[in-house]
Write a structure and sequence with these properties.
This protein is about 35% helix and about 20% strand. It is an alpha/beta fold and about 110 residues long. A 4-stranded parallel sheet has the order 3-2-1-4, covered by helices on one side. Helix 1 packs parallel to helix 2. It is globular and about 45 Å long. The relative contact order is 0.21.
């Protein structure tokens, strides 16, 4: 999508404290997005927020662990109460299981 798509939009980046999430957050900021940065490490998020702002975007830091049941819903409630509307989701947080599909537990 062209950069103009992201102007005046809010993008939530989960797993934004390092790696791909941090890089995508900076790119979204450079494209003019307001970026909600979510990860567990607040200090690392603050550094990414500074980079997003330097790139021309706005940044909101939310230090949260999204693993526990209900954590994503609590984040959504928190953003709703703050009047934040998320237009773009980068769901970069999580982990993978290295096992044959039929040997894994869906829960």
């Amino acid at each position: 999508m062209p950069d103009s798509f992201y102007r005046s939009r809010t993008a939530l980046v989960a797993g934004a404290s390092a790696g791909i999430g941090a890089d995508l957050a900076r790119q979204l900021g450079a494209a003019g997005a307001r970026v909600v940065l979510v990860a567990r490490r607040e200090r690392a998020l603050d550094a990414v927020a500074d980079a997003v702002r330097q790139a021309g975007g706005a940044a909101v830091v939310v230090a949260a662990d999204l693993e526990p049941p209900g954590a994503a819903a609590a984040l959504a409630d928190r953003l709703d109460r703050a009047g934040e509307t998320v237009d773009v989701l980068v769901n970069n947080a999580g982990f993978g299981i290295q096992a044959p599909l039929l040997d894994t537990d869906a829960g």
